[in-house]
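step=predict obj=Aminoacyl-tRNA hydrolase n=141
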Amino acid sequence: MIAVSERIAIPEHELIERAIRSSGPGGQNVNKVSTAIELRFFIWGSSALPDEVKQRLAKKRDQRITEAGEIIIQAQRFRSQEQNREDARARLAALVRTALEPPKPRVATKPTRSSQRKRLETKRLHGTLKQDRSKRHLSDE
C-alpha cells in the first residue's frame, strides 16, 4: 500500500511492477541482473482515488501519463532492485499528490493604462509607416 495522503492510499493490487534491465553504468551487474523497476498504475481503474483527482491526473501534461490514463514510471537510479522499487513508489505518490489540490482559479485582470497607451501608440506608428510606404510607391510611378 502506498500512502499518498492521510486519506488516500493506493492498494498493492492496483499496481503492476515489472523488473527490467537497467541501462547506464554498473559493469557486468547491468548485463546480468534486472535491477530497474517499471511501475504501472491505471488511473481510471483505481478505487482509491476520488473522481476529481483522477480527472486532474489524466489532464496533466506529463510524459509519464499515457492517453489511455496509465501512469508508467521507470526507476533505475539505484543499483539495487529494492531501492528502485521504493523510488518508483515514492515518485508515483508524489505525482498523485500534485493532483490532490484543485488548481487555483485564474483571475482575469485588465490591462494597465500604460500598456493600453503603448499598444495604441505602436499601432499608430505602424499605420503611418505603412501609409508612407504606399505614398512613395504611388509617386514613383
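step=describe
The CA atoms of residues 29 and 79 lie 9 Å apart.
step=end
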